[in-house]
Amino acid sequence: MVEVRKLTSWYMSFGAVTCLIGLIMTAELTLKNPYIAFPWHIATIMAFLFAVTGLIRCKSVKDPFTYGVIAIQHSWWIASVGLAGVLLGPADFFQKVASVESTVLTVFSAVWLFWGIYILYLLHKETKAPIAP
Amino acid sequence: MSSQEEKSTYEWEDVMGDYALVPVAPQALRSTMAMFVIFTGVLACIAALWGGGVLGLQFNFRDMIIVATVGTLIQGVIGALTAYIGGSSRLSTYAFMSWPYGRYGALLWGLALAGITCGIGWFAVETWLFGIMMHDLMPGNPLMGVGVASIWGGLLMMTTAAIGIKGIAFLSYLTVPFWVVIAAISFSSGIMVSGGWEKVIMLQPVSPTPLGLGIAQVVGLYIAGATITSDVSRFSKDPKGGALAWLVQVLVVENFFLIGAGLLTLGMGGTRITEALLAVGVGLGAYLLAILGQWTTNDNNLYSGALNFTLLSPVSRRTLVIILGLIGTAAAAYVGFVAGASFDPFIAFLTILGSFVPAVGGTIIADFYVYRGLYKKLPPAERYKLKIGDKMPEVNLTGWISTAIGGALGTWVITAGIPSINSLLIAFVIYIILAIALDKAGVQLAFGKFEITKRGLVPKWFIRRRGE
């Protein structure tokens, strides 16, 4: 259980830090094309909020099942934003002006997605919390 | 009572599955956040974006905001009122309809309105629409023919509905944040294609329409869903949680979807939203938008529909979902394969029935909040409380009369305003007058008695058939 908590914290911390990097990149992108930057703003702000609130909520919980429920909810949301990033990053709409920023954000999104799926599996297995609480 | 005590005193036996005919068990209750995610998953459908796309053809940016906000506010209030009933009674829409309509009334109205209209009927129609959309996106692919795509799409949607609320929640968790990002793309690409923010504000729609009609369209888009919110909110830990979740998702998320899609079509001058997203280069996301969007909505249609069929059927809710899902998929595929066949008459039939659904909502709201609340002064948790040994009327004509009159006047007689709102308000007023007048006169329009057992509203013949 300790190991799962540690991995979940790492995952959410990684999410929060990469979102901050993403926010800086999208701020620069706004100067080039605000319309292309806007969806990335929404994605990074959402993932950042999910990660930070997840860290805060999980920290105070002792009961493993309750911990699992909260951590699974937040991991799902971060992973879902990751899914959007993975699918949309390579699209022409984003590559027109912002190929570098889009590529970096797509890589971040892929990590949010695939690491998130692994964390969901672990949390479900260890805490017995439902996979969709 | 603590949650531990509540769990140990749960006395019901759920023979139909997913608490179709008994109150939801304490261990199955979910947080307000989970309610929000499930509701948003149901909302996140192509129909919401198509609805927004239609607004983009009819209104400029300023009017679009007015129309979407007023329309969603009306939906929000109605849905929150019905969601609170589910949260405080922990019963499905169908189950608590037994109070204002009697048990057979709940069966009839639940089946005809929520079961056929919102459930199986729309499941078939949306499965067929899914086939069309897939065909539009990939016309040359044999797996994307309207009929073939209807089959695999219908089967996909059936799987999560068969799993039940857990399956629907699973898909909602996966889809909801993804959809918000997609709506953001729709929003920003719409502005970009239009030539920038300054030009968007100046753009004029292709077919200008009066504001009232636009509000009616927005309300009509989701009013049936607003009437049956209890099917989800009954799982809420906090009785007010489901109502709050509904209100927030409609006012914030639906508004965002509608205006985002509207901007894209306003800017592009009239294309379907998925095609518009493809045209601006969103690529694979547009396909997933279509698949996940339709899936998260249509599994809920099937789930709600099957809940309303449970009393008629000798099989479990899951088996019902599969049977009804196969029928709906077959109907959609048939129309998809047969050239020239059209769902138009069927859609017209469903639209008429759809005008009746809000009349059911009006009756339920009047009974719960005014008759049992303000008039009888019962606390919310006691108004629709299922108790073992209690007797319930088989038929309560008060609800039948108010719904029939409200539905008929709102659908066919009154042409001004919004048909669904007219039906709801007329049924609401008639029920209050009738129920209070009858109570004061000491007259009962309720007949027959059905005794509640530990299996809730499960009929005796079902138990006999099981050999118990």
Oligomeric nature of the chains = heterodimer
- Largest beta-sheet details of chain A: none
Distance between the termini of chain A: 19 Å
Class of secondary structure makeup of chain B: mainly alpha
For the termini of chain B, the CA-CA separation is 33 Å
Strands of chain B, count? 4
Helical content of chain B stands at: over 70%
Low-confidence stretches of chain B: none
Structural class of chain A: mainly alpha
Number of strands of chain A: 0
Unreliable runs of chain A, pLDDT <50, ≥5 residues? none
Q: Could you spell the SSE succession of chain B in H and E letters?
A: HHHHHHHHHHHHHHHHHEEHHEEH
What would you call the shape of chain A? elongated
Q: What coarse outline of chain B follows from CA principal-axis ratios?
A: globular
Descriptive account of the structure:
The complex is a heterodimer of chains A (133) and B (468). Chain A is an all-alpha fold and 133 residues long. Chain A has one domain (2-127): Four Helix Bundle (Hemerythrin (Met), subunit A), CATH 1.20.120. Chain A has 5 helices and no strands. With 468 residues, chain B is mostly helical. Chain B has a domain at 16-341: Hydantoin permease. Helix content of chain B is 73%, strand content 2%. Chain B has helices spanning 3-8, 32-43, 46-58, 61-89, 93-96, 98-137, 146-163, 165-194, 197-202, 211-227, 230-233, 241-268, 273-279, 284-309, 317-337, 344-375, 380-383, 397-413, 419-441, 460-465; strands at residues 391-392, 395-396, 446-447, 450-451. In chain B, strands 1-4 form a two-stranded antiparallel ribbon. In chain B, strands 2-3 form a two-stranded antiparallel sheet. The longest helix of chain B is centred in the first third of the chain and has 40 residues, at 98-137. Chain B starts with a helix and ends with a helix.
